[in-house]
Here is the input.
Amino acid sequence: MDTQTLRTFLTLANVKNFTQTAALLYIAQSTVTNRIAELEKEVGKQLFIRNKKNLVLTREGLLFQDYARRIVDLEEMSIREMNSQAFSRASLRLGTTNTIYECHLAPVLTRMLKEETGYAMNVTISHSVNLLQMLQDGLLDLSFTYEPLQKAGFCCRRFRTDELLLVTSKQHARYQKGIRKEELPALNYLFCNFALQEVGQFIRELFPPFYQFPFEIDNSTKLISYLLDGIGLSFLPSSLVKPYLEEGTLFSVSLLDFEAPRISGYQCWPEDRKPAFYL
Here is the structure.
C-alpha cells in the first residue's frame, strides 16, 4: 500500500468522479480505476459503491478514509521536516483550536519568535477532536484543545476556564434586561459548532429538534464581525469577547432562568517529551 495510491483514493473520495480525479492527478482514468481496484483487493473490502450516476463511499470506505489521510499526513510531515531549511533547529509541532490560538497562543508564539528560541515551529489549527488524534498519531508535539486527553502515555493539564457568554451588539438594547430560555428559538441566533460535547449539546438543546439556524460556522472568531454589524446573538467564550465587552461594542446578555456551562482549555503532550512552554 503506497501513498500514491492512498492519495488517489482520497482525491476520488473527495470529488466522487473518476474522470475529475484523473485530471486533478494528471494521470489516465484507467490508472485511477486500477489503483482503486488494487487498493480494494489489498484491504479486502469494497471502498466505493458505483453506479452510472453516483459514486459513494461504503461504510468501510468512510472508516478507511481517516486512516489513509493520517498515513499521507505522516509522510508529508516527515518529508517536510527532513528537508526544512531550519533542519538544525529543534522541531516544534503545535496544534490548537482557532479560539485558543487567537486568545492565548499567538502572543506566546510572537514572544518566542522575537526571542529566537531556536525552534522551527509548525502550527496546525483545527478542532479539538482532530488535534488530539494527531497528537496520538505522532503528528504533533503539543496540542491546545477544549477537550482533555485522558489516555496512558500522555499528560494533560487545564490552563484556562472561560465563561460561556451570550453576546450581541450594543444596537440590541432590548436584551439589556436579559433573556429567558424559551425566547431563544425566536431570536436571530448565529450558531458556532464548537465541536465540544458538553457545550455543543448545551446549545443545541436550547432549540427544538432539527432547528435550522439562520447561520452556522465552525470558527467562533469569525462570528465577531457579524455581531459587531448588529446581526444576531451568539454564545462565545469570555476570553474571545473580552476586548469588545470592555470597549462597549458588544455586551453580555443575562440568562434569566438557565445557566451556561464553562469552557476549559487543555494543554496535552506525550509524557516522554517535556513541553517547550506552558500556557
In short: The longest helix spans residues 59-82. The chain has nine helices and twelve strands.
